[in-house]
Amino acid sequence: MTTKQEAAAERLARWKDDQIRIAQVEAASQSWGEKSKTAKDLLHDRYFFPLLAADIGRAGLVREKRNALATYIVATSRLREKPLHEIIKGASSAGKNHLAKTVLKFIPEGEVVPGSSMTAQAVNYAGTNRFANKVVYIDEQVGLKHPLRQLISEGRQIRWVTAMENGRRIMKEQVTQGPVACITTTTQAALAIDDESRNLSVWMDESFKQTQEIAKAHVARQREPLPPERLQQWHLVQHIIADRRVSIDTPPWFEEMAEKILPYGDLRIRRYWPSFVEACKVVALIRVARWSEIDDEECTVSFEDFATAICIFDRIIGESLTRSGGDAEMAIGDLVERLSGGTHGGVTASDLVGQQGIRSLDQAYRALRRARQAGTVYIVNERERNNEKRYARSPVATFLCTPEYAVNKLCLKIAGTYIHPISGKRIAYGT
Predict the structure, then answer these.
(1) Where are the alpha helices (DSSP H) in 192-252?
(2) How far is the C-alpha of 236 from the C-alpha of 220, rounded, in Å?
(3) SS3 146
(4) Which of 66, 301, 47, 103 has its CA nearest to residue 200?
(5) Could you give the CA distance from residue 99 to residue 71 in angstroms, rounded to a whole number?
(6) At what angle do helices 228-243 and 48-58 cross, to 10 degrees?
(7) How far apart are CA 98 and CA 102, in angstroms?
(8) Max Cα separation, the chain?
(9) Is the dihedral of CA 405, 408, 412, 416 positive or negative?
């Protein structure tokens, strides 16, 4: 065979292997239900996240495995001192609320505080413990000011009010206690910067393929629903995790990763790095919940915990770095891509003059500067004196790297395998 034929045969073989592994994960998920294993058994299973993704699919979600697992981790983070928060973004009818509601079925009902809207003052009158260590789910965030903003940042909200007592006016303290894990949805590409800085952005899959799969799922005859008793086991998993009160630290090589791998070219890294570290700790919390007793009250994030978190969140954070601009910034990115013909040579500011809404060179530069700050375009050529900058559409960025790259880059003296949380593949790392 020729070299091209050999490469094609190799790709076909890898594709077949992947399909076999996916089928094995689905079969394992069904077998687990048939054997009526306990929640403890599920926590002990190395395929915990692939099994969870498969059952979320049986509960009614079509594909969207990465977003579903991210939402589950955000919801589980309510048990931590500094929970994660998430905004699910997408066009109308993209399935944002369906994603959130389906995943939240796997969280015990009493742990979720749902609402269709919330006024700016509602949090002040919620009561002391109504929100403490709960998931607050608002199914449409239409305003630019999040009423939970202070509760998210400070872990509690204190308000001084006046009241009548024994015929005289006095001052009283109203306290709403957190922390909370907040999940909201929106059709807007970007909210106010103070809201964006407090949340992870999860983008829905709006591709033709996803629409086709959703349509096929609605008429599928052999689709097996998730039994209620199976869902009850997942609720028990959450109760077991909630009972595990343990301090979780990061390993020393996280400092090396922050020094050698973390991309510092974007200020928003200051926002996303702490969120990613917390996601690693939540995954570690789920792992240590399998043990009824541990030697001490402190645990460390393992490499497998890191690998699971990076496989789920790397693309999500990467998309946030390149898709967090408003409609105007996204439109400039699309315009630059169209004018450049998809090449990497890019376009200049003068190329934009005469396009819709851009009548002068100053307007072009201002639009490109805003788009660059939003991450939708980047400068292609080297920065030299008097040269004309050329801009290209930003590709979907990666936040950090693959787990295998981290091992090699940091020269870690470890080796083993981890289970990819989405595909279910067993992946080797180290030597």
Answers:
(1) 193-196, 208-218, 228-243
(2) 30
(3) coil
(4) 66
(5) 9
(6) 140
(7) 6
(8) 96
(9) positive
In this structure, which amino acid lies at residue 135? Answer: V
Token pair for 129: 């413990």
Phi/psi region, residue 86 (left: phi>0; alpha: psi -120 to 50; beta: rest), is beta
Q: Rounded distance, CA 133 to CA 151, Å?
A: 11
Please give the chain's pLDDT, 431 residues, in tens.
456 566 666 666 666 655 655 555 555 445 444 455 688 888 999 999 999 999 999 999 999 999 999 999 999 999 999 999 999 998 888 899 999 999 999 999 889 988 766 666 777 666 677 778 889 898 876 554 566 777 777 766 777 777 788 888 888 777 777 688 999 998 877 676 667 767 888 999 988 899 999 999 888 766 778 888 999 999 999 999 998 878 999 999 999 999 998 877 667 788 889 999 999 999 999 999 987 665 557 799 999 999 999 999 999 988 877 776 666 777 888 888 888 876 667 888 999 998 888 989 999 999 898 888 777 788 887 665 666 788 888 776 678 889 999 999 999 999 999 999 999 999 999 87
185 vs 101: CA distance, rounded Å: 11
Q: CA 132, CA 336: separation in Å to the nearest integer? A: 46
Question: Is the Cβ–Cβ distance between 107 and 56 less than 8 Å?
Answer: no
Q: What residues does 180 pair with on adjacent strands?
A: 134
Gap between the Cα atoms of 184 and 146, Å rounded: 10
3-class SS at 249? Answer: strand
Asked whether 190 and 87 are in contact (CB, 8 A), the reply is no
| Cβ atoms of 311 and 421 closer than 8 Å | yes
How many C-alpha atoms does 335 have within 13 Å on its Cβ side? 21
Number of other CB atoms surrounding residue 163 within 10 Å: 10
Q: How far is Cα 134 from Cα 182, in angstroms, rounded to an integer?
A: 8
Tokens coding 5: 């034929």
Length of the chain, please?
A: 431
Is the alpha carbon torsion for 407, 413, 417, 422 positive or negative? negative
- Residues with Cβ < 8 Å from 318, sequence gap 6 or more? 396, 397, 398, 399
DSSP state of 345: S
For residue 127, the tally of other CB atoms under 10 A from its CB is 11
Q: What is the dihedral of CA 26, 28, 29, 34, to 10 degrees?
A: 130
Alpha-carbon gap, residue 259 to 261, rounded angstroms: 6
